[in-house]
Prior knowledge:
With about 80 residues, this protein is mainly alpha-helical. The chain is built from 4 helices and no strands.
Amino acid sequence: xxxxxxxxxxxxxxxELKRRAEQSGQSLQAYVSAVLSxxxxxxxxxxxxxxxxxxxxxxxxDGAEAVAAARAELP
Length: 75
C-alpha cells in the first residue's frame, strides 16, 4: 500500500473528516481511504463526457420518453 500525506488541509475540513470517521466507527485513515476509493470508482467527468461523444446518436428518440422509460425499469 502506498502512503499519502496531505499538507495545508483546511482545519475545518480536517475536523469534519474526523467527525465523519468517528461517526462511522472508522479511523481517520480508513475513512479517508474509503472516501477516496469511492470517488475514484466513478469516472472523471471529462472521461465520461469523452465517452459520450464517442457514442453514435440514436435517431428519432425523444429524451423525455427515454428518461421515463428508464425510470419505469427501476425497482
